[in-house]
Each structure stands twice: as C-alpha cells, then as structure tokens.
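Hi team,

Below is the intake form for Peptidyl-prolyl cis-trans isomerase from Neorhizobium huautlense. Please confirm the fields before the structure is written into the shared record.

FORM ID: S-0412
PROTEIN: Peptidyl-prolyl cis-trans isomerase
ORGANISM: Neorhizobium huautlense
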Amino acid sequence: MKLLHLALAGAMMAASFAAPAMAADANTMTIQLKDGPVVVQLMPELAPKHVKQIKELASKGEYDNVVFHRVIDGFMAQTGDVEFGKQGGKSFAPSRAGMGGSALPDIPAEFSRTPFERGVVGMARSQSPNSANSQFFIMFTKYPSLDGQYTVVGKVVSGMENVDKIKKGTGGNGEVTDPDRMLKVTVGQ
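The structure came back. Fields below:
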C-alpha cells in the first residue's frame, strides 16, 4: 500500500511539472530563417494585447516570407510589415516596406521595466506610443534608450546565432537591399 502511495505521488508530481511546459509552449514562437530557427519566448505577462496580436498574425501565416526591412548592425533587426513586406511577387514593395502594419487595429502601449538587451523582442511603432501593430525587432545588443519607450513582447531563447547572420542594412536607417526574410513563423509548436 505504501508503495502505491509513493507511485501515485510520483505520478502527480510528474504531471504538475508537465503542465507548465505545455503552457510555456503556447507562448513559444519559432521563426525559421535561412540559417536556422530562432525560438522566442513570448511574454504575455508583460504585454498581453501585443502577444495576442502576434499569435493571431502568426497563426494566419501573415509573417511567412516577410522581410527584415531594417537591420542596423550593433542595434537591431526589424521585420513584421505584413502589409508591404512579403518577399516575391506583387506583394513585395521594397520602397514601402516598414511603412505598414496589418489589417488588425493598432495596439495601445504596454511598456514595462524590462530592459532592451541582446535577444529581447520589442514592438516597432511610429512617434505615437499607441501605434504598434505587427512589426517587431530583435535586439543585437543592449540599448537602454529604448527602455520604457517601446513594448517588450519576448526574448530569444535559442537561435540568436541565426539572428546575427541576418543581412545588415546600409546607412543610418538600416534599409536592406535584397533582404533576408522570415521563411515561416509558428506559435506553440
């Protein structure tokens, strides 16, 4: 009888460890790049509305084949312009990439105290703090001037070496000619 209780306690303990892993999986975004996958742990506890919108866009395939239109070495790589950033065909407008968003509404700012450092994923926006929509950026390094000014939505937990290989832009704005792209973006897989 005592052995049965120990086995049952062990099974219950194993089940309690399995539950959080499943919850974390629902907030895992995988970005497939030409050099390999990048896994981002999304943080709905910091930015629930932003994370919800990213998940919705990813689940609809809206981020697939979208270019990294602005990449500044030593700063960040920006992507997610689903309106203008599609690679190939008529949907790719290099002169307009970075100017759009998605068909979904803009999201009010959800600023936090989480610092912008290497691997942090933040939402891009215009001058208005409440203008984030679909575009996001991945930090190459720490950048304190962004802290509390932009919404943090996640952090790269693996594949940062693949982010480092994204083709860099030129000039002060980091516009990229013949840019790399997100081949496929999935959430919870």
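SUMMARY LINE: Strands lie at 28-33, 36-42, 66-67, 70-72, 76-79, 120-123, 136-139, 152-158, 181-182, 184-187.

Thanks, M.
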